[in-house]
Amino acid sequence: MFKYSKLIILGSGPAGYTAAMYTARANLNPLLITGNNIGGQLVNTISIENWPGEYNISGYDLMNKLFKQIKQYKISIINDSITSTNFNTNPFTLYSNNYIYKCNVIIIATGTYPRRLNLISEKNYENKGISTCALCDGNFYKNKIVAIVGGGNTALEEALYLSNIVKKIYIIHRKNKFSAEPIIIDKIIDLIKNNKIIFYKNSILEEVLGNNYIITNIKIKNILDQSITNINIDGLFLAIGHIANTNIFNNQLLLKDNYICTNINKNYKTSTSIPGIFAAGDIVYGNYRQAIIAAGSGCIAALDVINYLNNC
Fold first, then answer.
1. Alpha-carbon span 235 to 149, nearest angstrom
2. Strands 100-103 and 259-260
3. Farthest CA pair distance, the chain
4. Nearest C-alpha neighbor of 92 from the set 187, 4, 218, 192
5. 154, 239 contact by CB (below 8 A)
6. Which pLDDT tens digit goes with each residue over 153-186?
7. What is the pLDDT of residues 260-310, one digit of tens each?
8. Which pTM does this prediction carry?
9. How far apart are CA 36 and CA 59, in angstroms?
10. Could you say which DSSP state residue 273 is in?
11. Active-site residue list
12. Is cis: bond before 52, omega within 30 of 0?
């Protein structure tokens, strides 16, 4: 089936929703394609304390509020996922398993997805005790023992959430100190002092072991002295960063480290290497990974599109 819209927005996180709202208010009647992860990665965040005007709101609730807000405008929302693109000519063409989409302008806000360790043993136990979302799967491990790989905001937020559910947490981090916000680190240190969390620093996950049905233990290697530690666990949570969702744009848009390069046209901060295609959110600002920055860049992309169309 075929669908046409002058403007298509790809992604349903803070950047995509904000871009949709601002372009709709300019009577551009955008078509928003949600992607597989409706609401973006933010829906997995347990508690948000730094969103202006809100305090201690979950990522799911915040994105639900944004969704209800954009529903007030003339925005077509389709739950679909793009599998390939053709940007050689304008109108641009986007393909999914359900439709062929055509448009003259695109705002890409496809975000990122969780990074994996790429261990053979990790793949063997995928969906058998390995998770990338504590909020989604934490309740399966009530009063059990789990391990978390990572040392940034995501890993420590997962640990804080799980600390109210599980019996014990092992945090495995390749560096000698955490790289999260100080306020989160302070909370984790308190849990370490109380033996709720055991911290393995300068360490990497070497192997995932089990009984072919579920994880039973893991091997950790200290990268300084090469020593191996075997830990019995019931579940493993991976929080080691994210990868940009840019596979469908390879060999078409200019990328750097798989993130979309912007500000190509100095008149439009969110412009990409192809006129008429703009990008916003974590797909551009991967180092920051803050919802407010993603939303702000979605607003900038919308304003850039409005000005671009006015000058065409």
1. 11
2. unpaired
3. 63
4. 4
5. yes
6. 989 999 999 999 999 999 999 999 999 999 999 9
7. 999 999 999 999 999 999 999 999 987 777 899 999 999 999 999 999 999
8. 0.81
9. 17
10. S
11. 133, 136-137
12. no
